[in-house]
Each structure stands twice: as C-alpha cells, then as structure tokens.
Write a structure and sequence with these properties.
Keywords: Coiled coil. By secondary structure, this protein is mainly alpha-helical. Helices cover 73% and strands 0% of the residues.
C-alpha cells in the first residue's frame, strides 16, 4: 500500500496521523460494540426482528394465488376428516363390547323393518 504524499514532506506545520490506540475500546465507549448492549435492548431488538419477520410472512400469505388458497383449504379439510376418523376409532376402541353389539342389533332391526315395509 502506498503512503500518502503528505507523509514524505517534512513540513512541521502538518499534523501527522497516528494509529489509534485501541479501536475496540473507542467503539465500546460509543456504544457500537454488539456485546456491550444491555439485556433489555437485546430483547427489544429481538422482538422488533420477530415482528418484521411476522409481517413478511403475512404479506407472503396475502400474495398467494387462488389455486394455492383452494389447495390449502382442501388440505385442511382432509386433515380434519382424518382427525375425526381417528377420534371415532379411538372412541370405538374404548367402548365396551356390549355397546357395540347393541348398536349392531339396532341397525339390523331397522334394516329388517325397512325390508318388511317394502
């Protein structure tokens, strides 16, 4: 790296630049060092970043096409149906055997009466 021209001159009236003693210390005094931030300031910055990210995600949601929206609705409906099926299966497993038999007998008696009326 080339030295500036004013360093070569021996002019005593010029103030010669000096190397900084400790630039990290100067940055801390100015508040530029990231590790020197108080906890409250860190938390507030984190919240602000989270809020910005959330806003960007909401904007991305708004920009979805009609097809994507319909696909998401279908997916949600399928997930709800699967949950309902799973609840029914869990409920069927938990009920005693005589309740299942009684339900089957009720259905068969309804079918028999329906057939006899026809």
């Amino acid at each position: 790296m080339a030295e500036p021209d004013y360093i070569k001159d021996d002019n005593p009236e010029l103030i010669r630049p000096q190397k900084l003693i400790n630039p990290l210390l100067m940055n801390q005094k100015r508040g530029l060092a990231p590790q020197n931030k108080p906890e409250l300031q860190k938390v507030m910055e984190k919240r602000k970043q989270d809020q910005v990210i959330k806003l960007k995600e909401e904007e991305a949601q708004k920009k979805k096409s009609d097809l994507e929206i319909e696909l998401l609705k279908w997916q949600q409906k399928l997930e709800q149906l699967e949950l309902e099926k799973q609840k029914l299966q869990d409920g069927a497993r938990k009920c005693p055997e005589f309740v299942k038999v009684k339900g089957n007998l009720g259905r068969t008696s309804q079918e028999v009466t329906h057939i006899q009326k026809s």
